[in-house]
Amino acid sequence: AERRLEGRLHRTPLLTSRGLDRLAGRRLLFKCELFQRTGSFKIRGALNAVRALVEDSQRAGKELPRAVVTHSSGNHGQALACAAQAEGIPTYVVVPWTAPRCKQDAIRAYGATLVPCEPSDKSRAETAARVVQETGGVMVHPNQEPAVIAGQGTIALEVLEQVRDTHRGAAKRGYPRCQRHSRFLSAQAPEVNAVVAPVGGGGMVAGIAVAIKALRPDVKVFAAEPRNADDCYQSKVRGELTPNLHPPETIADAVKTSIGPTTWPIIRDLVDDVLTVSEEEIKAKAPCSLLRRATRLVWERMKLLIEPAAGVGVAAVLSERFQAVPRAVENVCIVLCGGNVDLSSLTWLTDLPGEAE
C-alpha cells in the first residue's frame, strides 16, 4: 500500500494544542486527515484499491474494470470516484438518502453516478450488489476490502515516521525530547504512546492496528464511536460480531455503519479498547464542566473545521472513561479523520439572512 500511494497523497501534518493538552491532562497530537485529498483519510484506501485493480489488469494483460461500485455515506464514495476518475474508470456510488448534500455533491463532482438507498447497512449492501450485477463493475467495499484496510493503515506509518524523524532532528540539534513550543509538531515533540481513531465500519482502525502492532506493539490502539452506534463496543464486550440492529441516530454520519467480518477479527485481536461517547460529548459538553463541545473545541482552539466524526476521537480522549487509562499513556495521537462538513447545518450560516446555500 505504501508503495502504491507514494507521491499520490498529501503527507498530512501532526498538529498540537496546549489548550487541549490541559483539558485532557495529556500531550495530544492531531493527525490532520481533513487536509488529505478529498477532505478525508478515505482516499488512502480507495486509491490503494483502485491501483491494485489497475496493476492486476496490467499483469494479466486484460482491460481495466468496466466500473467500480461502492456504497458510502459520502467520504469513501468521493474518494473512490476521485481515484477511479484518474484511471478513466466509471464509478457508481450507492448513497443513503440521508447523506449530507455537500458529500453527495462532492461525489458527483468527480463524475460518479449516485444511486440512492435507504439508510441501513442491509439496504446499502443489497443496492450495491444490484448495481454490480447491472453494470458488470467491481465492488470496492468501503471498509471490508483488504486493499482499502491496508491503505488506511498508512496513517499509522506516517505518524510513526513523523515522530521518529522529528526526534532524530532534535537529537542532532541537541534539543530536549519532551518540550513543545509550536502548534506544529516541533523538534521537541513527544513520542506516541497511543493512537485513537473513530470507528464506523472499522477499516481505518483495523489498518492502523495492523501497522502499529507490527512496528510498535507497545503503542495502544483505541477505537472511538458514538454510543448510539456502539456495535464495535458491543462486539468487543460479547466477543462476537454484533452489528447495529437499526440505523443509528448520530450527527457523526461518517461512522454510522457497523464493523464487518473482515475488520472484526482484527479489532478483536489488535485494538486495545473501544471508547463510546454520547451525542452530548460529541456536540455539547463532556462530563467535566471544563470540557466544552468536542468538535467545537477543535474549531475554536485549533481553527480546524473538522466534521463531527472526527470529533468522536477528541470527545473520547476528553471523556471520564479515558481518565482511567494509565498515566503512562501520556502522548496520544488522535486521528482527525475528515473535514467534509455540511456547512448548511452550522448555526452561524443558517442564521444569516437569505439563502443558506
Keywords:
357 residues, alpha/beta, Rossmann fold, 2 domains, 6-stranded mixed beta sheet, 4-stranded parallel beta sheet, lyase, pyridoxal phosphate binding
Notes on the protein architecture:
This protein has 357 residues and is of the alpha/beta class. It has two domains: 2-40 and 148-347, Rossmann fold (3-Layer(aba) Sandwich), CATH 3.40.50.1100; 42-144, Rossmann fold. Helix content is 42%, strand content 13%. It is built from 15 helices and ten strands. The protein has helices spanning 2-5, 18-24, 42-60, 75-86, 101-109, 121-135, 146-152, 154-173, 203-215, 231-238, 263-270, 279-283, 294-302, 308-318, 347-350, and strands at 14-15, 27-32, 68-71, 91-96, 113-117, 138-139, 194-198, 220-226, 273-277, 331-336. It has a six-stranded mixed β-sheet with strand order 1-2-10-7-8-9, with helices on both faces. Strands 5-4-3-6 form a four-stranded parallel β-sheet, with helices on both faces. The longest helix is centred in the middle third of the chain and has 20 residues, at 154-173. The protein is globular.
Class by alpha and beta content: alpha/beta
Distance between the termini: 38 Å
The percentage helix is: 40-55%
Mean pLDDT rating = 88
Number of helices: 15
Order of helices and strands: HEHEHEHEHEHEHHEHEHHEHHHEH
Strand order of the largest sheet: 1-2-10-7-8-9
Rg on CA atoms, Å: 20 Å
Shape-level CATH architecture of the largest domain:
3-Layer(aba) Sandwich
Integer count of domains: 2
General shape: globular
CATH topology of the largest domain: Rossmann fold
Number of DSSP E strands:
10
Highest-level CATH class of the largest domain = Alpha Beta
Q: Strand count, sense and closure of the main sheet?
A: 6 strands, mixed
Strand content: 5-15%
Task: State the low-pLDDT regions, or none.
Answer: 173-182, 284-292
